UniProtKB/TrEMBL annotation:
This is SEC14 like lipid binding 5. Residues 509-653 form the GOLD domain. The gene is SEC14L5. Coiled coil: none annotated. Pfam families: CRAL_TRIO, CRAL_TRIO_N, PRELI. Residues 178-216, 670-689 are annotated as: Disordered. Residues 2-175 form the PRELI/MSF1 domain. SUPFAM superfamilies: CRAL/TRIO domain (SSF52087), CRAL/TRIO N-terminal domain (SSF46938), Supernatant protein factor (SPF), C-terminal domain (SSF101576). Gene3D superfamilies: CRAL-TRIO lipid binding domain, GOLD domain. InterPro entries: CRAL-TRIO_dom, CRAL-TRIO_dom_sf, CRAL/TRIO_N_dom, CRAL/TRIO_N_dom_sf, GOLD_dom, GOLD_dom_sf, PRELI/MSF1_dom, SEC14/CRAL-TRIO_domain. PANTHER family: SEC14 RELATED PROTEIN, SEC14-LIKE PROTEIN 5. The lineage of its organism: Eukaryota, Metazoa, Chordata, Craniata, Vertebrata. CDD domains: SEC14.
Length: 689
């Protein structure tokens, strides 16, 4: 597995020319970096006008590894080749380095750049990326990978300190300004000499567009990059590898989820929840983003208005901040009639309210960060259990609580900074036994439980809350406006018919549908078109795996294939006996959609009949698969273990006139290319984001 590192943008508040003078002081040796044993110049060249200076060095690095590993490898130091292209005219330094030692077993590549800050020409930006691919190393591949990454990140941190050391040294010696490069007149004789044949390894080999071209593109400045000062100020202290994970995940989101990138604080929470394991955090975040889209959570704070009954009887609310500046939420669960609330408003309304609390908590964290000038990424919850009894252990209520915990754990990780549980009664261990297995271990470590009056005095609430913030019902000085709860009158309970109707409304309000696609078992959606010219629109996200998307037309309505008892519906609608070209036809060419992609498109129909949207698992090149497998194939796929693709989709059929009107409105505003009715049969009406 290839390990990658990507640094944030590190800013030196000094001009480029002065930073370059400090950088040159690192060679041929650098006492500030003990592992750097020395270097020698292999090749050097300059452009005729002196603007571009290319230096190729051989650098020796001490192997900082256990003696046994060094003995097996048979080396005490490793050699890297570094190529520097310094362009005084453009004020850039591009650096490429690769290892020569063990090059057939281990491949290390590094790209660095020094460039002028895009908003201040007297500042200098530095970026660094690297990759490590250990192919084989005497059976010590895992050990070498850990040692190499640990040593590399330590040197990354040390690198900035070294440049700052030499900058201070230059200034103390009286060098605080170095004039910028200006072209010097080239004599005719020098020009003739420079026009002769060139060494393949000289400057010509490193002209723009050559081997260093890609690294320049990779590190060019743009508005979407993070700088180290911003991370420290708004996100908190991160190690170099944690910074790298944040930048890599953010970059992946920019490529696959354009227009809907979550905030950096939100991304960082998912990384922390998965101990900065990039692939696991990416999967968790991708699932959460799709969940937010399906349930329209991004609009929750603007659209959610809790019922009056909930505002009266739900005993929870926000109450100032804790001693660390985190927003404080108080929940008087012991005083709350959870059974009555569920019977009066339903489980879905309660869940929606809990989600709104979490959304509000994230918003308050952002406000605290701005107010205090330091990162606040989580909040504190004060949970008062006085009054908790067996009524709270009502089975449907506990089941609903477990569901809410699961939803919050999956979609709001690392948002709870501390949970202060006070006045825990004897029945609490029973409730804790039921719910604790569903709470993440990292979250459980943040729980502080006080029974009786143990929360009073030293070691209690005063260690986490200012005295003037402790609510009056806990003996504090602050008047707390959180509702007191109480029993919900049975006259306010919903009837079974009302409850069923409310649940249906919540189900119908879901805009997006989820589906699983197995090998040999595609997912299909049929739409009957009565008009000759209508518009089918679709929008779907690929959550897992790669799929092939197709659109078909049939003259008659397909019937789902027969299923044996005990098997589940596969979503396949096309008859096994149908023949492509006779019973149905393909009206759009198949499109391969990769994991993480979002696809939007539309199709203007030409004939009435039945149109089918189909998603099937993408087969690797060289494999032959029937585009429409039969029932036997589907049953085999359902009963046999194997890979599974998941997607979230939405579709709609519009009258052609309505779609033209919509397209006109969009084009009059800020419509994107490809929006609007598209006649014909191309994918011109499809966009990837």
């Amino acid at each position: 597995m290839v390990q990658r590192y990507q640094s944030p943008v590190r800013v030196y508040k000094y001009p480029f020319e002065l930073v370059m003078a400090a950088y040159e002081k690192r060679f041929p040796t650098c006492p500030q970096i003990p592992v750097f044993l020395g270097s020698e110049v292999l090749r050097e060249s300059r452009s005729p006008d002196g603007a571009v200076h290319v230096v190729e060095r051989s650098c020796r690095l001490r192997v900082d590894a256990p003696r046994l590993l060094r003995k097996i490898a048979g080396v005490e130091h490793v050699v890297f080749v570094q190529t520097n292209v310094l362009n005084w005219k453009e004020r850039t330094l591009l650096i490429e380095a690769h290892n020569e030692t063990f090059a057939n077993r281990v491949v290390v590549n590094e790209h660095c750049s020094y460039t002028v800050h895009p908003e201040n020409e007297d500042w200098t930006c530095f970026e660094q990326s690297a990759s490590l691919d250990i192919r084989s190393f005497f059976g010590f591949e895992n050990a070498l990978e850990k040692i190499a990454m640990k040593q590399y990140t330590a040197n990354v941190k040390r690198g900035k300190e070294v440049i700052e050391h030499y900058l201070n040294e230059l200034i103390s010696q009286g060098t605080s300004h170095i004039p910028r490069w200006t072209p010097a007149p080239v004599r005719e004789e020098d020009a003739r000499n420079q026009a002769g044949p060139r060494d393949p390894g000289s400057l010509e080999a490193h002209r723009p567009g050559s081997a260093l071209g890609p690294s320049l593109e990779a590190v060019s400045m743009d508005g979407d990059k993070l700088d180290a000062d911003y991370i420290e100020r708004c996100l908190g202290h991160l190690t170099p590898m944690q910074e790298s994970c944040l930048i890599q995940l953010r970059h992946w989101l920019q490529e696959t989820h354009k227009g809907k990138i979550p905030k950096d604080e939100h991304i960082l929470r998912f990384l922390r929840a998965r101990d900065f394991h990039l692939d696991k955090a990416r999967e968790m975040l991708c699932q959460s983003l799709s969940w937010r889209k399906q349930h329209q959570v991004d609009l929750l704070l603007q659209t959610w208005q809790p019922p009056a009954l909930l505002e009266e009887f739900y005993a929870g609310g926000w109450h100032y901040q804790d001693i660390d500046g985190r927003p404080l939420y108080i929940l008087r669960l012991g005083q709350m009639d959870t059974k009555g609330l569920m019977k009066a408003v339903g489980e879905e309304v309660l869940l929606r309210h809990v989600l709104s609390v979490n959304e509000e908590g994230q918003k308050r964290c952002e406000g605290s960060t701005r107010q205090l000038g330091r990162p606040i990424s989580s909040w504190t919850c004060l949970l008062d259990l006085e009054g908790l009894n067996m009524r709270h252990l009502w089975r449907p209520g506990v089941k609903a609580l477990l569901r809410m915990i699961e939803v919050v754990e999956d979609n709001y990780p690392e948002t709870l900074g501390r949970l202060l549980i006070v006045r825990a009664p004897r029945v609490f261990p029973v409730l804790w036994t039921l719910i604790s297995p569903f709470i993440n271990e990292n979250t459980r470590r943040k729980f502080l439980i006080y029974s009786g009056s143990n929360y009073q005095g030293p070691g209690g609430l005063v260690d986490y809350l200012d005295r003037e913030v402790i609510p009056d019902f806990l003996g504090g000085e602050s008047v707390c406006n959180v509702p007191e709860g109480g029993l919900v009158p049975k006259s306010l309970y919903m009837t079974e018919e009302e409850q069923e109707h409310a649940d249906q409304l919540w189900q119908w309000s879901e805009t997006y549908h989820s589906a699983s696609v197995l090998r040999g078992a595609p997912h299909e959606v049929a739409m009957e078109i009565l008009e000759g010219e209508s518009v089918i629109t679709w929008d779907f996200d690929i959550l897992r795996g790669d799929v092939v998307f197709s659109l078909y037309h049939a003259k008659k309505v397909p019937r789902p294939g027969a299923r044996e008892p005990g098997t589940r519906a596969s979503g396949q609608l096309i008859d096994k006996g149908w023949v492509l070209g006779r019973d149905y036809s393909r009206v759009e060419a198949p499109l391969v959609c990769r994991e993480g992609e979002s696809i939007q498109g539309s199709h203007v129909t030409r004939w009435p009949g039945v149109y089918l949207l189909q998603w099937q698992m993408h087969s690797p090149p060289g494999s032959v698969a029937c585009s429409l497998p039969g029932v036997d194939d589907v049953l085999t796929a359902l009963h046999s273990p194997g890979p599974k693709c998941k997607l979230l989709y939405y579709y709609e059929v519009l009258a052609s006139e309505d779609f033209r009107c919509l397209g006109s409105c969009l084009s009059a505003g800020s419509a994107s290319p490809g929006v609007g009715p598209q006649h014909g049969h191309g994918w011109s009406s499809l966009t990837r984001v």
